[in-house]
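Interim report, section 4.2 (structural modelling).
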Amino acid sequence: MSSAGSIDDLSVRIFPPDGYVFQIEYDAEALQNNGSVVGIKCKDGIVMGVEKLKASKMMLSDSVHRRTVMAVAGLGADGARIFARAKSEAAKYENMFSEPIPVKELVERVASYVHLYTLHWLCRPFGCGVILGGYYGDEPELYMIEPSGISYRYYGAAIGKGKQAAKTHIEKLKLSDMTCREGVLEVAKIIYKVHDEAKDKGFELELSWVCNESERIYQKIPDELLEEAKSAARLPSRKTLITKRPVELPFY
Amino acid sequence: MDTTLQDLNAPHSMGTTIIGVTYNGGVILGADSRTSTGMYVANRASDKITQLTDNVYVCRSGSAADSQIVSDYVRYFLHQHTIQLGQPSTVKVAANLVRLLSYGNKNMLQTGIIVGGWDKYEGGKIYGVPLGGTLVEAPFAIGGSGSSYLYGFFDQVWKEGMTKEEAEQLVVKAVSLAIARDGASGGVVRTVVINSDGVTRNFYPGDTLPLWHEELEPHNSLLDILNAQGQSPEPMNI
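Predicted structure of the assembly:
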């Protein structure tokens, strides 16, 4: 039997006797040190929220393609690499087939790219998790790709520091009945709830969506909705008001 | 003679008439059936309408070899695409693949292709990919050497939203007009109807086609005449 700290965890190319490739497990730890990312699938689209810690290595939630939204949590430089690859895959596909890349197709390609780096002794795996969503076709789709390269489709997903708590909150939501407008408020509340005020002073909330309201195109949510979401999120807990930014009055 | 020998070695070309029209509910592709090597008709009953997927067909014109190769490649890519997508490819995707190959190899290829099909997003669609590799989406498209004689005809007769029967009659009439005037087109008329219900192939033998100005009526061959009279000619005993 092997254990963490023995010789078996030194490299991705070493397969310990109990079949537990430690490098990939350690990889997931990289995500725990960075801000949270939450994504949910509402009945008319996808909403994604990012907790951008001040001076953190968190990646922007950005558009890979006008019809998808992708957020990467973890090491920033690794994340930029994944973004670039995803953009390139989307562009090549559209060039060849003259239609936007289906979300499932894009996820498969990004996931196999991430997985590739867990196979070679020359490279270390990506220290990033990816949440990818899009509304192309009949239904909105949300996927999560872990650093091991595995990907699944989700109703709601979270990665990063507060992911356990976030997942609990997401599970309480009735997503199949929720519109994206309502979803935006919920995601904001969740991120505020899981934000650890003691360890990280202050953060910036970034929200974006791909939904019917945005005509199924990636969009950073409109400013008034963002303000409404922030206010709604700050309501219940007085703890989160202790930030370095000016205090806003609760909105009724 | 010299000319006949040259003909036999000339590349197979499909001096052709090909047509694709949209109607209310789908598309109809039509073509003649003559493949010529110079003056010699290499195949008088060829099938110029080729299947790419269950719901997308192409009409081929120009060099027979070039158009076959392009169709084969596109069929291969579309097959992969269908597997990845988990549902039938759209006509637009098929047409784009044809265009990429035609334009990318324009120096070496000599083929004009009409892509036609039906998908659940756009319905019946026709795309023309002529010699240089442009991609043109249009309610109808004509191609091949025989199409020169049909531009005026379509200008007058074409209308949007025809029924399936009207559209098929139009296609058969047009191909037969072109056959009458173009030496490189002839034989039979084949049509393929593609709509939400599926695909139907139709066949119109050359002697059932309407006759136009100065065309002679078809005669039965001597064999048919003798058979009808009850005298079946015996082969010579040598």
